[in-house]
Specification:
The chain has helices spanning about 5-10, 15-20, 30-50, 55-65, 70-80, 90-105, 125-145, 150-190, 195-205, 275-280, 290-295, 300, 310-315, 340-345, 405-410, 410-430, 480-500, 520-525, 530-560, 575-595, 605-620, 625, 630-715, 715-720, 730-750, 795-799, and strands at about 110-115, 210-225, 235-250, 255, 265-270, 330-340, 365-370, 375-380, 390-395, 395, 405, 435-440, 475, 570. It is α+β, with helices and mostly antiparallel strands.
């Protein structure tokens, strides 16, 4: 889109050309273009002034320096009021600047880093190397299985190849990122990065916009080591082109009315020294005739073009502007425009320095430079996308505007209230510092007037009217200091909440200089409000990252070592981003700890825990792929461990089963032993019963024999004594049978044992005990059973 300011420039080309022909030292072929560019600048300047941006920037600078604007200072003096300025706005701006400096420049570490993209594009040789690494990992995986390979194993091996390739590429790109970081950091250090960033942060806290320009090739002195006399090392300095980064003052920025993010026309005002102009003669694409004319006329051109805004802010910015500070420099205007070819051809410019012809119907993104109104450079924008080497941010964005709301603007009303309160406090303290003298009737004065007072003064009056009223009275004014001081404290609290900037340099926590350490950053941001965090994030994302990406792309073009080439991106390493990563790392480690203790850990699995570990390593800036094994190998190891655990569990189960069987057998054996013992006890009881029965039978037989013998001997005598009731044989036998029945009844009462073989009712399988013809138990050896010492048979003969 062509800027609207070009319309005026095109119509005034002829007028500017005629007026410029009066300069004999300039090349007349560039006069028309110089006039057209000048008109564009005047349009931008008028637009900025009418928008009120200049006045707001001036007021912000005066407020930061605790000074009233000249017109307000004069009005207060004319009213006889105090001109004391409390400086609340300057205090908050200083706090904000201190926070920003501590975040971005607090330590030696840089507020940025390079990291690989999620899927980096790498050279072919690196892909082949990664592929060989993956194949080797898959081969080791298959060899470690120790069994026949299944189709599922082949799928896992293929996945392992891909994972190993990705890990190898990420490790290599991270290594290349570290090397490229060193190269860029060295270039930025030599190109004035830190001083430019420091001034840039001042504009963030105070100005309507903070602008960084870069990377721009400028000539800088570099240290060169050589060999001197005697072989000793010798250092010398030479001027060489170098990539530089510079801060652009918001007072030197002139965007068009339609520009928001440098997509439209933009003009930067620059002051050039004579050495800078001589450097242009050494560079190609500069118009040497025009440069030489500036060098020839430099004494008369230096110190000119001091504008009204320069004189206004000169008391505040003594090191930047003002007539005394611009002596020895000429004003340069760096134009970044989008123009049709017709504009350039009508201005007498038909070719670019590289020889490319200008076509009337095409649109061109051009860069032009004028010194003291003379065109010294015109060429196409080196960026093929037409992007300009400027990056900006501010305290609070305004949608649709190039400019931002500055911190002094946000606090302007609170600052006015606080200053009014302080002026009242000063005036009140002046009034209340002593009494007031009241003379109700000046006619009673002896002199013309009273102008002095001192201790022990004698007051003399006259009283021609014999008045009873006192001729003089003293009144002590009331002091409102406490109430006014309370308003100041309230204003400070309002300023804290309105700005979002916590106190920093007033003795609170955290202490100054906490730096970019982990504990320091935590202290820093635990007490910081969201306002300062928002500004830090904006600086990271809107300025530092895009600027460093431009530097990185420039280094890629100039790189001669293929080992530093890689698909990388710039990531912020500011305090907020560092704090967020630290919190994420702590949360992930806590999650890993909970997973290791939770009974539901199997819900996540080995692959899930591996992913959490990789992210934890990434949060602490460690190369996770280089530390952790591929997931397939982890799963293979986990599978082997699970298999071993299953085998162990099965062996333990089998051992427990065998143990149970052994115990069951022992129980059966115990039961068998008990049965045997029970049978033994039963047999012994039977044997004892048989012994008892045999003993009884033997006793009965002996008794019967004895009786028969006695009856035979005394038969005759018995027959002789028959008259006295001697029993007959039949009666004696009947009596013996009755005795046997009685004894048998007694045995049944004791429990009759099982019958012995040879006796009625004896069980099968038990050998019969032999008896004699008379029914006595006999010895198995053939002899009669001898009675034991106790009157019965011995156990051996019984068995």
């Amino acid at each position: 889109m062509v800027d609207s300011s070009l319309t005026t420039a095109l119509t005034d080309i002829e007028r500017q050309a005629v007026a410029a022909l009066a300069s004999p030292s300039s090349d007349t072929s560039y006069v028309t273009l110089s006039g057209a560019l000048r008109d564009i600048f005047l349009t931008h300047e008028r637009s900025r002034k009418e928008s009120g941006v200049e006045q707001a920037m001036v007021e912000g600078l005066f407020a930061f320096n605790s000074r009233y604007l000249p017109e307000k200072q004069a009005a207060l003096k004319a009213a006889g009021l105090s001109t004391t300025y409390f400086g609340l706005i300057g205090e908050k701006c200083t706090d904000a600047l201190s926070w920003l400096l501590d975040v971005f420049l607090g330590e030696s570490s840089k507020p940025w880093r390079l990291k690989s993209t999620p899927v980096p594009d790498v050279p072919q040789e690196l892909s082949e190397l990664a592929l060989s690494t993956g194949i080797q990992a898959a081969r080791e995986y298959q060899e470690g299985l120790g069994r026949e390979i299944t189709p599922e194993d082949n799928v896992r091996a293929a996945s392992l190849v891909r994972q190993a390739m990705q890990d190898a590429i990420l490790v290599e790109t991270d290594r290349r990122a570290k090397q490229m970081e060193r190269l860029i950091d060295d270039a930025l250090t030599e190109g004035g990065w830190k001083p430019a960033l420091k001034d840039f942060l001042f504009d963030v806290a105070v100005g309507k916009a903070a602008i960084l320009k870069g990377p721009i090739v400028r000539e800088r002195q570099k240290k060169v080591w050589g060999t001197g006399s005697g072989g000793k090392p010798k250092v010398s300095y030479v001027w060489e082109p170098a990539l530089t980064v510079s801060r652009v003052s918001p007072f030197d920025a002139y965007p068009s009315a339609s520009t928001v993010e440098f997509e439209g026309d933009f003009i930067e005002r620059i002051r050039f020294r004579l050495s800078d102009v001589f450097w242009m003669l050494k560079r190609k694409h500069f118009i040497k005739s025009q440069v030489q004319s500036v060098i020839d006329d430099f004494p008369s051109l230096a110190g000119t073009e001091v504008r009204a805004i320069d004189s206004t802010v000169a008391p505040i910015l003594q090191n930047q502007t003002g007539e005394a500070k611009v002596q020895g420099t000429v004003e340069g205007l760096n134009y970044w425009l989008t123009v049709p070819g017709t504009f350039l051809r009508n201005a007498g410019y038909e070719k670019f320095p590289a020889g490319k012809s200008i076509v009337a119907g095409e649109l061109y993104h051009i860069e032009a430079l004028t010194l003291a109104g003379r065109v010294v450079f015109v060429d196409e924008n080196p960026d093929p996308r037409g992007q300009k080497p400027y990056f900006k941010t501010g305290w609070q964005s305004i949608p649709g505007s190039f400019w931002y709301r500055s911190l002094p603007e946000i606090l302007a009303d609170i600052g006015d209230v606080c200053n009014a309160d302080v002026r009242s406090l000063v005036n009140n303290m002046g009034l209340a510092s002593g009494f007031q003298v009241i003379i109700p009737d000046t006619q009673r004065l002896l002199g013309d007037k009273l102008t002095t007072m001192f201790p022990h003064k004698i007051w003399q009056f006259k009283n021609p009217s014999n008045s009873a009223a006192p001729p003089i009275d003293f009144k002590q004014p009331d002091s409102n200091a406490q109430e006014l001081l309370g308003i100041i404290n309230e204003c400070r609290q309002w300023a804290d909440s309105r700005s979002g900037v916590p106190k920093y340099l007033v003795g609170g926590q955290p202490p100054p200089g906490v730096g970019r350490t982990a504990s320091g950053i935590s202290m820093l941001f635990n007490s910081a409000a969201k306002g300062i965090r928002r500004v830090v994030i904006a600086v990271d994302l809107e300025v530092i990252c895009p600027l460093l990406e431009a530097v990185y792309e420039r280094k890629l073009v100039e790189a001669e070592d293929a080992a530093v080439l890689g698909d990388l991106e710039v990531a912020p390493a500011g305090a907020v981003e560092t704090l967020v990563k630290s919190e994420l790392a702590e949360r992930r480690l806590a999650l890993i700890g909970e997973l290791s203790k939770s009974p539901d850990a199997d819900l996540v699995g080995v692959r899930g825990r591996s992913a959490v570990w990789r992210e934890a390593f990434r949060s602490v800036e460690m190369e996770g792929p280089a530390i952790m094994a591929p997931i397939e190998k982890i799963e293979q190891k986990a599978e082997a461990v699970a298999k071993a655990e299953r085998t162990k569990a099965e062996a333990e189960a089998q051992a427990m089963q065998m143990d149970a069987q052994n115990k069951s057998l022992e129980v059966e054996i115990s039961k068998a032993k008990l049965d045997v013992e029970r049978q033994r006890f039963a047999m012994e009881s039977k044997i004892l019963g048989l012994k008892l029965e045999a003993q009884i039978t033997e006793n009965q037989q002996r008794a019967a024999i004895t009786k028969r013998m006695a009856s035979s001997v005394d038969l005759k005598t018995a027959e002789q004594l028959g008259q006295i009731g001697v029993q007959t044989d039949e009666e004696e036998e009947e009596e013996e049978e009755n005795d046997i029945r009685v004894n048998a009844g007694n045995l049944e009462a004791l429990g009759t044992p099982p019958a012995v073989p040879g006796v009625a009712g004896a069980p099968e399988g038990v050998e019969a005990i032999p008896t004699g013809e008379s029914g006595m138990v006999v010895n198995p050896g053939g002899g009669p059973l001898e009675p034991s010492a106790g009157g019965g048979p011995t156990p051996e003969t019984v068995v």
